[in-house]
């Protein structure tokens, strides 16, 4: 039997490590697969647990802080047990499926929405050795996978046989198309800097020191190297995941809840989970390509902590924006996307290319 | 009338001139307490109203009251001037009981559209030439007209589903058209109650809007007709505009009934009324701001909660004063129920504290809302309501004032203690959603000024002259067939009450002129051609309360 | 852009100052004004069965049953139908019916909210506030009870 490593990278990936630790790597392909599955299981559950905390608890607490309220505090310390209570509540509800729903599209949509986001985490280096796969086209993969979600949204919107859902689904598509391009193009400017699409290399490049101010070494995070691209990417990302001020596909006061109007019980949970996963995936991408991934003070082994801090920072930012920024209208949103962000993204790309070309 | 022409200010029309203007078309006079009334033939309606509007300047059809007597039906057009609402004239149009048909006034005043639909719906007068003669408050299938004399209250109304138009039916799969029919409401997060807006969309653009009201029709007029003047009517006005404008509504009834029964209200009570009413206005505008931001921001977020927090303080003060947070029942005919609560100093201080903190809070709103660029982009140049359109639709209150119509009954038709106080009427000429928000926020500041002055007056008022109620008999029986129409400036606009007494201790006809009703009727003009989000925002900026629209 | 940042700064300020304006009911019972109008309390000893409250009630919430000698037998009040206008208290010449500050009442069905005489007598004061004192300070004089304690059984 000949061992064929999946990657040529020098980083040790989580499946390999699990394989070593459990001795599964002795069993060849099957062992490798099992190890990969175990690793994916660990990462997937970590992310699901985070959304579980974020959805029923953190979001409430954060919103309450912004609005001078108390929020959940009855069950458990600081109301944390509400997570359990809410899960039981949501999962025990009856699934109501509209009469004219177009099945199986209606049933598949929540799964597509939730799983597409989970897939994206496969190539994210989270520090402390938690990194599932490191393909050469890591960044392209993560954008591609995250983009699948819009298919899920339009499926949900179309299949629900509800006009509000339809409007929401169409809005979601229009929005994703308009913002995917600036998102990817801004991401490309990072690739020009790093010279690679491989996530581990993008992270590695950022760990170098940019300037040393005495004892404080400022790392070469791309957010610091090119803050303009960072802001562009942040904006495009909020639109991509449909958060305020770009939450038009949901727009509860306009089209009730958009594509998720007709979803209930488990399906609703899946869509809801998917949304949070997308926020976190967006946060993970931002952390990886702009904020140095798991980079931070302290030993390398606590990288995962820094990584999570960065993701949660992005999540907090979404909630902060939610508290203070009105939703833009759909036509304004599209206008900002095509006439504003796209142009700026190209300008940024060309400038970056020129500057990198001059320096290198 | 002996008043010479030379004493009149320009633009003022004497009764002689009115008589000359209407001429032979006036069959006889039927004066009301508030205005001269002219009885005309049912086929002269448009003629006379056109003349009154164009020649004499009565450009505000404030209200249309329809009622049935034993021998006739009657429609009364209460006309006013936007420039000077103290000048009023009533045009009375009697029609026979057997064939109640009257000419429509819709070509003269757009607002007559909804008015006449309501008159047809509740009383049963047909308006010839009306462009849209449907029922408005009751369902299409309703049998009979509830306010007509021969209406059988006992007969059950059975509306089967097959008889009733299914709102989902016609819109599905209309192969011919490119438009989509959408029911916004009655269960929709942003309709501010049970409002149903039948919307036709072309993509995201609104092509046609038809507000379908009546889901909250609670027979308020009939309930008032069954209550005694002295006590039993006063609790109900609180329930028209129920969100927090209670005292303003009570004042509308109090003003009409006090004029009807000729009751003089003590000055001290007027000051308390003025203060209470302005507190209610602040509470109501805070809610308007909060819910409008809810519509634009999209979630129960900061602005909404902050507005509620500030409204809460006002409600605490009102609770101390009246004993209730929303349904005050605080006014009495001839005064108010209670003096300021003891210890007075504490109450005055609490209210002053609120006023002292208010400017900082308003600054905060300005930081958060009005100076926010995205908010500005969302609100400017959407929901445009031109001043002439606003007048034609009978718009009043902040909606009209934000369109540059300088009309405020507190100043133009003074009541209470307003004329002795220093304050300004806020007008803006933006005509859009943004102007309406700003107008309300500035009115809050003006209200605070009024309250401040009232507090000073109340504090210094000599203790032995604190007379809170006039001496009013326990049973009021105004003379039969006295009619009065009186309006006050409610939180949403001109809230008018028409009362006809029939010699008993209960009104013969009680008609409510609701400002929200008229403001809502402009929704179509404001939003056609705009996007769905603007439809929602414009609806929010009108600040309607369905309890008052449907009554 | 500046306005946008200003609004974000405002909400952040609120988030950081840690103050809340909501309270934890029922742990912190809200303060109600002395004038607040809650559930009724009835005093049979004071009632003279003049039926004025029944007459004035705007929506027929109060129902009084008397025998042929005009002695009161029943005094029923539907506290779910009541609109809390306080007119019954206002017209009562002997303060037999009072609106307490008590706003905490529940029922599984609407019929549970139909209170009879005994239930109305048993309504507790809220935080021991006697509404009579704050509402009409000089009324005690003409009832003839003087300074003495008013006993509501």
Approximate helicity band of chain A: 55-70%
* Quaternary structure type: heterotrimer
Poorly predicted regions of chain A? 1-9
Distance between the termini of chain A: 44 Å
Cα-based radius of gyration of chain A, to the nearest Å:
21 Å
In CATH, the topology of the largest domain in chain B is named Cytochrome-c3 Hydrogenase, chain B
The secondary-structure class of chain A comes to mainly alpha
Largest interface: B-C, 35 and 29 residues
**What percent of residues of chain B adopt helix (DSSP H or I)?**
25-40%
Largest sheet of chain B: 5 strands, mixed
Give me the strand/helix succession of chain A: HHHHHHHEEHHHHHH
Q: Which architecture of the largest domain in chain B would the CATH scheme give at its second level?
A: Orthogonal Bundle
CATH superfamily of the largest domain in chain B: Cytochrome-c3 Hydrogenase, chain B
Described by strand count, sense and barrel closure, the largest sheet of chain A is:
2 strands, antiparallel
Q: For the largest sheet of chain A, list the strands in their spatial order.
A: 1-2
State the end-to-end distance of chain B: 39 Å
Number of contiguous helices of chain B: 17
Domain 4Fe-4S ferredoxin-type (chain C): 38-67, 73-102
Protein name (chain C): (4Fe-4S)-binding protein
Keywords (chain C): 4Fe-4S, Iron, Iron-sulfur, Metal-binding, Repeat
GO cellular component, one term (chain C): membrane
SSE layout and pairing:
The complex is a heterotrimer of chains A (360), B (551) and C (153).
Chain A: H1 14-22, H2 28-66, H3 82-91, H4 105-120, H5 138-159, H6 163-194, H7 199-206, E1 209-213, E2 216-219, H8 222-225, H9 227-241, H10 252-255, H11 265-290, H12 303-324, H13 330-359
Antiparallel strand pairs in A: 1-2
Chain B: H1 15-22, E1 26-29, E2 37-40, H2 45-54, E3 60-68, E4 72-80, E5 88-96, E6 101-103, H3 112-122, E7 126-128, E8 180-184, E9 196-202, E10 205-212, H4 220-225, H5 246-261, H6 267-297, H7 302-322, E11 331-332, E12 335-336, H8 344-370, H9 373-379, H10 387-392, H11 397-401, H12 409-412, H13 433-460, E13 483-489, E14 494-501, E15 507-513, H14 515-521, H15 523-527, H16 532-542, H17 546-550
Parallel strand pairs in B: 2-5, 6-7
Antiparallel strand pairs in B: 1-2, 3-4, 4-5, 8-9, 9-10, 11-12, 13-14, 14-15
Helix pairs in contact in B: 5-6, 6-7, 6-13, 6-16, 7-8, 8-13, 13-16
Chain C: H1 2-17, E1 40-42, H2 52-56, E2 62-66, E3 72-78, H3 87-91, E4 97-99, E5 114-115, H4 117-121, H5 131-135, H6 139-143
Antiparallel strand pairs in C: 1-4, 2-3, 3-5
């Amino acid at each position: 039997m000949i061992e064929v490593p999946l990657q040529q990278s020098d980083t040790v990936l989580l499946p390999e490590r699990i394989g070593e630790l459990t001795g599964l790597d002795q069993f060849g392909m099957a062992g490798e697969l099992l190890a990969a599955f175990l690793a994916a299981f660990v990462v997937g559950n970590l992310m699901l647990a985070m959304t579980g905390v974020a959805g029923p608890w953190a979001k409430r607490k954060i919103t309450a802080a912004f609005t001078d309220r108390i929020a959940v505090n009855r069950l458990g310390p600081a109301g944390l047990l509400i997570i359990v209570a809410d899960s039981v509540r949501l999962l025990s509800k009856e699934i109501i499926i509209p009469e004219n729903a177009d099945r199986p599209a209606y049933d598949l949509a929540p799964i597509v929405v939730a799983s597409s986001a989970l897939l994206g985490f496969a190539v994210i280096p989270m520090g402390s050795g938690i990194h599932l796969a490191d393909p050469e086209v890591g960044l392209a993969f993560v954008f591609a996978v995250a983009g699948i979600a819009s298919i899920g949204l339009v499926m949900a919107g179309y299949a629900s046989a509800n006009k509000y859902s339809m409007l929401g689904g169409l809005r979601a598509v229009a929005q994703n198309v308009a913002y995917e391009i600036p998102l990817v193009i801004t991401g490309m400017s990072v690739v020009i800097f790093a010279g690679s699409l491989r996530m581990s290399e993008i992270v590695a490049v950022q760990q170098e020191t940019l300037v040393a101010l005495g004892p404080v070494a400022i790392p070469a995070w791309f957010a610091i190297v090119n803050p303009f691209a960072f802001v562009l990417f942040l904006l495009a990302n909020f639109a991509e995941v449909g958060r305020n001020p770009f939450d038009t596909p949901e727009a509860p006061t306009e089209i009730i809840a958009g594509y998720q109007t007709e979803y209930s019980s488990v399906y609703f949970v899946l869509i809801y989970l998917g949304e949070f996963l997308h926020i976190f995936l967006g946060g993970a991408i931002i952390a990886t390509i702009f904020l140095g991934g798991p980079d931070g003070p302290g030993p390398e082994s606590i990288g995962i902590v820094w990584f999570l801090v960065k993701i949660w920072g992005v999540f907090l930012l979404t909630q902060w924006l939610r508290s203070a920024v009105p939703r833009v209208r759909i036509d304004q949103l599209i206008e900002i996307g095509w006439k504003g962000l796209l142009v700026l993204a190209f300008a940024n790309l060309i400038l970056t290319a020129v500057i990198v070309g001059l320096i290198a | 009338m002996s008043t010479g022409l030379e004493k009149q200010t320009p633009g003022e029309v004497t009764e002689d001139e009115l008589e000359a203007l209407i001429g032979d078309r006036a069959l006889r006079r039927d004066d009301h307490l508030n205005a001269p009334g002219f009885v005309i033939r049912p086929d002269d309606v448009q003629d006379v109203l056109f003349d009154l509007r164009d020649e004499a300047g009565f450009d505000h059809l404030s209200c249309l009251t329809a009622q049935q007597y034993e021998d006739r039906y009657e429609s009364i057009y209460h006309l006013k001037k936007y420039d000077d609402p103290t000048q009023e004239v009533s045009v009375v149009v009697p029609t026979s009981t057997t064939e109640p048909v009257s000419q429509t006034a819709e070509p003269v005043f757009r607002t007559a559209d909804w008015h006449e639909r309501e008159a047809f719906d509740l009383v049963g007068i047909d308006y010839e030439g009306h462009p849209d003669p449907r029922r408005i408050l009751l369902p299409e299938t309703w049998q009979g007209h509830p306010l007509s004399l021969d209406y059988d209250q006992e007969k059950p109304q059975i509306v089967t589903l097959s008889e009733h138009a299914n709102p989902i039916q016609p819109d599905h799969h209309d192969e011919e058209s490119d438009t989509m029919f959408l029911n916004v409401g009655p269960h929709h997060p942003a309709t501010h109650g049970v409002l149903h807006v039948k919307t036709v969309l072309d993509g995201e653009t609104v092509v046609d809007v038809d507000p379908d009201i009546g889901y909250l029709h609670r027979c308020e007029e009939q309930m008032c007709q069954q209550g005694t003047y002295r006590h039993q009517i006063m609790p109900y006005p609180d329930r028209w505009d129920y969100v927090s404008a209670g005292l303003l509504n009570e004042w509308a009834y109090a003003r009409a009934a006090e004029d009807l029964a000729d009751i003089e209200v003590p000055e001290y009570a007027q000051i308390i009324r003025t203060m209470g009413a302005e507190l209610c206005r602040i509470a109501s505008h805070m809610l308007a701001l909060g819910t409008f931001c809810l519509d634009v921001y999209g979630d129960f977020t900061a602005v909404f909660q902050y507005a509620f927090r500030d409204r809460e303080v006002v409600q605490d003060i009102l609770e101390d004063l009246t004993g209730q947070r929303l349904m005050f029942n605080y006014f009495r005919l001839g005064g108010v129920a209670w003096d300021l609560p003891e210890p007075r100093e504490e109450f005055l201080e609490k209210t002053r504290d609120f006023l002292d903190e208010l400017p900082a809070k308003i600054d905060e709103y300005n930081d958060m809302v009005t100076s926010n660029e995205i908010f500005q982009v969302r609100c400017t140049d959407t929901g445009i309501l031109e001043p002439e359109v606003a007048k034609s639709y009978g718009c009043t209150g902040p909606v009209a004032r934000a369109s540059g119509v300088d009309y405020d009954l507190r100043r133009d038709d003074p009541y209470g203690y307003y004329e002795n106080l220093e304050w300004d009427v806020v007008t803006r000429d933006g005509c859009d959603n943004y102007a309406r928000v700003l107008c309300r926020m500035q009115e809050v500041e003006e209200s605070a000024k009024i309250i401040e002055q009232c507090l000073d007056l109340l504090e210094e008022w000599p203790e032995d002259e604190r007379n809170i109620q006039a001496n009013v008999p326990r049973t009021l029986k105004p003379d039969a067939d006295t009619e009065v129409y009186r309006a006050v400036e409610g939180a949403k606009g001109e809230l008018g009450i028409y009362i006809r007494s029939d010699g008993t201790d209960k009104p013969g006809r009680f008609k409510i002129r609701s400002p929200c009703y008229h403001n809502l009727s402009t929704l179509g003009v404001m939003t056609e051609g705009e996007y769905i989000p603007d439809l929602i925002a414009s609806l929010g900026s009108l600040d309607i309360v369905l309890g008052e629209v449907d009554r | 852009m500046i306005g946008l940042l200003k609004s974000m700064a405002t909400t952040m300020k609120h988030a950081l100052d840690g103050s809340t304006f909501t309270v934890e009911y029922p742990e912190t019972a809200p303060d109600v004004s002395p004038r607040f109008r809650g559930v009724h309390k009835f005093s049979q000893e004071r009632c003279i069965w003049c039926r004025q409250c029944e007459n004035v009630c705007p929506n027929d919430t109060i129902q009084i049953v008397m025998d042929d000698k005009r002695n009161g037998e029943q005094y029923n009040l539907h506290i779910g139908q009541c609109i809390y206008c306080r007119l019954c208290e206002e017209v009562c010449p002997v303060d037999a019916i009072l609106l307490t500050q008590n706003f905490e009442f529940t029922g599984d069905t609407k019929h549970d909210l139909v209170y009879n005489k005994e239930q109305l007598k048993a309504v507790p004061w809220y935080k021991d506030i006697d509404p009579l004192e704050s509402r009409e300070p000089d009324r005690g004089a003409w009832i003839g009870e003087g300074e003495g304690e008013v006993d509501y059984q």
